[in-house]
Write a structure and sequence with these properties.
The protein is of the alpha/beta class. It contains 16 helices and 26 strands. The strands form seven sheets. The protein has a nine-stranded mixed sheet, with helices on both faces. The chain has a four-stranded parallel sheet with strand order 4-3-5-6. A four-stranded antiparallel sheet has the order 16-17-20-21. β18 and β19 (370-371) form a beta hairpin. α1 packs parallel to α8 (197-209) and α2 packs across α3.
């Protein structure tokens, strides 16, 4: 197994199809394959232990990913939004490295010990010069070779480097994507950053299916809507904060949904129920929605709430069915999911605990820490949640975020879900804050809908009416917006700082 196998199949079966488009630059599958072969020779001759990319999305992303796989060197995309000191620390961890960087960063990075620098422009020029070459497919087929290292966000310490081997990524693609399954006119809009697992999965799945990748280097809702219309985008993946901004833009400007758009997938963070409801209304009836839940350590998606699930839940009068719109759906057929208590015992339906996952695509490994898989290949995700009676998976935040009040464990997600049902609440975040008497107290940061009003007392009474009194927030504070990272994850650490 090697990621190059996916590109080779695409080049052989769909070589003339456009594979990637960005700012007027276009590569077919065959041209990507030829360029990856030439660039792999450069990587091997460099003696680098890793190939890194420090840049926004461009054709350099698939070129770097596949040429590194061809050369047998791990690909390590870096977060271009980090500070100089944070980036310096990550670069030190991957040296000796062949570093592909945006042209605007070249002067800062050039001349460093253990760093061979190539700019995006230089890489793309070399890739174009390879057109027409027939490279020898001399890559390793060893499934255990490391394909990608992805640094975690590092919210509680130094970022961990998650190890994804070729076998994990290829297993995910073969198990969830149909070869040549896309039509010749299909196009996928890639607006998530390349250092996120969703960005890597988008490249691999689109190449294998034959769907053109349309890259948007810098997201704004207006630019997203414009390029989707211009390039005839049929499929897109967004994080919840992106979809919320797109919906706001469409409502404010009266912009219609892109005419060719048939499917929008979302994930990377919790989707507020009002946002997906508004989106389904605005994009109806031509666009389907899918919620895709996965982790870096699981090589992307492990559970899906599909289009039919969305429609059934949205229009159901049964509250148990309707609430599934807030779920992440059911596990993929190739994946097993369990919910366990703190002692590791499997729990039944509607019992809350930690989510464990097992399957061929599950890596669960970090550089310097080894495999984190337990008892027969299960990976403890550290995400809390439960499975309902029909097998739908509900997330309730990280297990580290559990509020312990007087010895009672409380899920922030459970309280947030109730607050989001209030007609005036647009967004909510619940955290624990220090309390002398109870150890921790419940605190809530609330964003109200435009032109809506609710008092703290009203929201506390709302929670009391729907949950036990112990769940009622002791502190309610209203904010203009909540802190999210660029992939849509709520930054609870910053919420706690707001509520101190």
């Amino acid at each position: 197994m090697n990621l190059m196998m996916l590109l080779e199949m695409a080049a052989q079966g769909m070589g003339e199809r456009e594979a990637v488009v960005c700012d007027g630059d276009r590569f077919t599958s065959a041209q990507l394959y030829e360029a990856a072969g030439r660039l792999s020779r450069r990587i091997r001759s460099s003696g680098a232990a890793h190939v890194s990319l420090l840049d926004t999305s461009s054709p350099a992303v698939p070129l770097a990913l596949f040429s590194a796989a061809w050369a047998g060197v791990p690909f390590v995309p870096l977060n271009y939004r980090l500070t100089g000191a944070e980036l310096d620390a990550l670069i030190e961890r991957v040296k000796p490295v062949l570093l592909i960087a945006g042209d605007d960063r070249a002067d800062v990075l050039r001349g460093r010990d253990g760093v061979q620098l190539i700019t995006r422009s230089e890489l793309l020029a070399e890739a174009r010069s390879a057109r027409g070459e027939v490279p020898d497919p001399d890559w390793s087929a060893e499934a255990e070779d490391v394909a990608i290292l992805l640094f975690t966000s590092g919210t509680t310490g130094a970022p961990k480097a998650a190890v994804l081997r070729h076998k994990h990524l290829v297993s995910y693609i073969l198990g969830s994507v149909e070869y040549m399954g896309a039509g010749e006119a299909d196009a996928a809009l890639m607006s998530v950053p390349p250092y996120h697992i969703a960005g890597m999965a988008a490249v691999l799945s689109s190449i294998y299916s034959g769907r053109k990748i349309v890259q948007l280097p810098s997201f704004t809702p207006g630019a997203w809507l414009a390029i989707a219309e211009k390039e005839g985008v049929t499929n897109a993946f967004v994080v919840p904060t992106m979809l919320g901004r797109i919906v706001d833009e469409m409502e404010a400007r009266g912009t219609p949904a892109p005419s060719a758009l048939r499917a929008v997938a979302y994930g990377g963070g919790k989707m507020p129920l009002p946002v997906i409801e508004r989106a389904m209304s605005l994009f109806a009836p031509t666009t389907d929605f899918t919620n895709a839940y996965g982790l870096t350590e699981t090589s992307s998606t492990i559970a899906v709430l599909g289009p039919d699930d969305h429609r059934v839940a949205a229009f159901s009068d049964d509250p148990l069915v309707k609430r599934r719109l807030a779920s992440v759906g059911k596990p993929l057929p190739s994946v097993e999911v369990q919910v366990r208590d703190p002692e590791g015992r499997a729990l039944g339906p509607n019992e809350r605990g930690e989510i464990y996952v097992r399957g061929e695509q599950v890596a669960g490994e970090y550089v310097g820490r080894g495999s984190q898989l337990v008892d027969g290949g299960w990976f403890p995700t550290r995400d809390g949640g439960y499975l309902d009676d029909e097998g739908y998976l509900f997330l309730e935040g990280r297990t580290d975020d559990v509020i312990v009040r007087g010895g009672e464990n409380m899920s922030p997600g459970e309280i947030e879900d109730v607050l989001l049902e209030h007609p005036a609440v647009a967004d909510a975040a619940v955290v624990g804050i220090p309390d002398v008497e109870w150890g921790e107290a419940v605190a809530a940061a609330i964003v109200l809908k435009e032109d809506k009003h609710a008092s703290a007392a009203e929201l506390r009474e709302w929670v009391k009416r729907h949950l036990r009194s112990s769940r009622v927030p002791q502190l309610v504070r209203f904010e203009a917006e909540l802190p999210y990272n660029e992939t849509g994850k709520l930054l609870r650490r910053k919420v706690r700082e707001l509520l101190k």
